[in-house]
Amino acid sequence: MNMQDKKRCAAIVLAAGKGKRMGTAVAKQYMELAGKPLIYYALKAFQDSQIMDTIVLVAGEGEVSYVQDEIVGKYDLSKVHAVVEGGAERYDSVWQGLKALREDLETAYVFIHDGARPFVDEAILTRGYETVEQFCACVAGMPSKDTVKLVDEDAFAVNTPERKYVWTVQTPQIFEKNLITEAYSRLMQEDHTQVTDDAMAVELMMKTPVKLFEGSYENIKITTPEDLKIAEAFLR
Ligand code: CTP
Ligand code: MG
Hints:
Number of helices: 7
Low-confidence stretches: none
Order of helices and strands: EEEHEHEHEHEEEEHHEH
Distance between the termini: 31 Å
Shape: globular
Bound molecules: cytidine-5'-triphosphate, magnesium ion
Number of strands: 11
Strand order of the largest sheet: 5-4-1-6-10-7-11
Largest sheet: 7 strands, mixed
Helix content: 25-40%
């Protein structure tokens, strides 16, 4: 990549979830993984990335000053230019992050990332940058290793999509800033309760097709307790 022509990039790192499926008292993003809070790893990858210029961190209600001191300050994450409060659902938190970037007129691309995915790395960010430059909207994902079945309400198999057409999606999800801001501002005015990722906002609200690019099989989301064991194994 030619760094001279590189366009300005912002990351929105999401850490405002409750971590219900983890079932711990401390929200999962603050749990320790090899001696550091889980959220540290994704932030560090963006901090050290030559592609990233600025980071907005979205934290939970009432957690902003804790996160400023105990994460951003403590680990010297100097690219984090704002810590904002998220909302009840993931899309509410993304919307808060996008609003924090509104004044930043230079930023061309926004990388939206789940703080609960510690294994994002420079190779993924580079592939993402190259893909968004070409297609304006892209998401990391991997071909599904399992066969996927669509089922009915009673869990009877209805349809089995051909495996080569099935990918599971990850983050970062990367978009031209104006495109994703417009998609979300339209979405927030309509019924959007079924929206679970950022690509859906673009798929539903805009005409731009969303391209998938290769993330990695290690770029897992820490969701349930067994994921922590897998993450510890990756770190060893
Ligand atoms: N997230 C967020 N704001 C929300 C919900 C989720 O910022 N209202 C973030 C989470 O912190 C996480 C990412 O979005 O980094 C992916 O969400 P998920 O894995 O579902 O995390 P939680 O919502 O915290 O977990 P759960 O669904 O088990 O409660
Ligand atoms: Mg959730």
